[in-house]
Amino acid sequence: MTRDTAPPGADAVACTGLSYAFGDHNAVDELDLTVRQGEVFGLLGPNGAGKTTAIRCITTLLPVPAGMVGVFGHDAAGDRMAVRRLLGYVPQQLSADAGLTGRENVALFARVFDVPRAERAARVTQALAAVGLADAADRLAATYSGGMVRRLELAQALVSAPRLLILDEPTIGLDPIARTGVWEHIGAVRQATGMTVLVTTHYMDEADQYCDRVALMHRGRIRALGTPAELRTGLGARRSAAGAAHHAPPTLEDVFRDVAGSGLDDEAGDFRDVRSTRRTARRVG
Amino acid sequence: MSEAPAAPRAVSADPARGHGIDLLLKPPPPRAGWRLLPARVGAMCAVELQKLRHDRTELYTRAIQPALWLLIFGQTFTRIKAIPTGVIPYVDYLAPGIIAQSAMFIAIFYGIQIIWERDAGVLNKLLVTPTPRSALITGKAFAAGVKSLVQAVVVLLIAALLGVALTWNPLKLLAVAAIVVLGSAFFSCLSMTIAGVVLSRDRLMGIGQAITMPLFFGSNALYPVSVMPGWLQSVSKANPLSYEVDALRGLLLGTPHHLASDFAVLFIAAALGVTAASALLGRLAR
């Protein structure tokens, strides 16, 4: 049941032919995705691209058939508990409990991940310190700023020493300074622990700056995959080959427009997506 | 934004400085088998008590209604002696019924919290922990029980202040606590089951309002079953609240009771409730 039973060298995440439909809408459509151990992998795409659905399949929140999703070699269908013990998950919404202090919020996750009582307090303190919340630990989370809540959620995820940290839109609605702060904490923690990070975002500039590899997702499928530099130079080369007179080097956003083509605006998330995004943004701002 | 741009950077750049992160490098050993359920129940109850400690408003506002029931309804009906309660004053007879009622009112709206947690992402986060769905629901059910228990203590004190002759036998009070927790576990599971069906706070609110009064009036909380018309007696027999009140009355006042069967009915009802709510929890997760 522990991480030690995972086959050595297994990929952090391996999705093969993953499909998930809501009614007759294929949110995720024959998705093949591999996240290697230790990398920061960005899953990019507009609202409604299927990022969150894919994440929910990987985190065992949505039922998937056996053999479609593996996390460090454990099957997300057959071996759910083992998968969950390896995961730290931060959902898109601001999910800290405002009625509890920062310390209590983290302690809850220490408890439900079976941290022994003897080391619980010390572990919670370390997790809070690692995200720079040591001084605010005993204040109610209701008094935290948006960036602080995000960092608190990071501490909640870190307290169980996950091997794979999954962050769904971690910087949505945050101002640029808070966004940088969140990313720097993610980077520092990853450097110190060597954990794998899977992150979704629709901010292309963030992905370009902080991700080792990115996958561009559109309408349930991956349209491009590689390091941000590879994708940018690839598009630059295609453009020069086509003889187009582009002066500025392409950005990741240009790559995305190139692979997704037109029609980016008509399917930008269903009502619930948008509502939840706006609610998060409102609570953050 | 009250974010101080420089401060987090300084801490994050070197997490090993000052505070170690050694503990965050090793995963906790999994807790297996039968010890998992009590651990989750403990975690959920701890959270409920912590919240109550930070904000007691609800505890006080929820004490108003039961106080009015005992003070106005109880006192008045004691004077007019309209309800045959034997040698026991009516307000005494009423007190256990009001304890059960106020506990039920808390539990029956507990599903609203589950829907709130779903909308806030808290539920998804808990479901991605090594917690089976039934253990999560059982934990929530007992947390509702603990919340109800705190409320029951408040009502008990109000009743004592009004001169109701209640038992102070600690063993009996322990049994009272167990009954209140079991009853609230059932009603909170009923609420979470409905939450899993309707998936919206507004609808759950409406249904909760619609069923609390029939549950209350269709029980022996206000009057003995013997004065009810035949059809209402059958309703009362199928109503877990009646068994809760019967047990509380027996324990607190020493009236004739059926403790063993009351416990059994409440236990089975709670177990069925946990099963139903766990089965529907998946709907809240997607």
Automatic annotation (TrEMBL), chain A:
Keywords: ATP-binding, Nucleotide-binding. GO terms for molecular function: ATP binding; ATP hydrolysis activity. Residues 13-244 form the ABC transporter domain. It comes from the Bacteria. PROSITE patterns: ABC_TRANSPORTER_2. This is ABC transporter ATP-binding protein. It comes from Streptomyces cahuitamycinicus.
TrEMBL record, chain B:
GO terms for biological process: response to antibiotic. Keywords: Antibiotic resistance, Cell membrane, Membrane, Transmembrane, Transmembrane helix, Transport. InterPro entries: ABC2_TM, ABC2_TM_bact-type, ABC_2_transport, Nod_factor_ABC_transporter. Pfam families: ABC2_membrane. GO terms for molecular function: ABC-type transporter activity. GO terms for cellular component: ATP-binding cassette (ABC) transporter complex. The chain crosses the membrane at residues 59-78, 98-116, 149-168, 174-199, 211-232, 263-282. Coiled coil: none annotated. Residues 57-284 form the ABC transmembrane type-2 domain. It is found in: Cell membrane; Membrane. It is a multi-pass membrane protein. It comes from the Bacteria. Belongs to the ABC-2 integral membrane protein family. This is Transport permease protein. The lineage of its organism: Bacteria, Bacillati, Actinomycetota, Actinomycetes, Kitasatosporales.
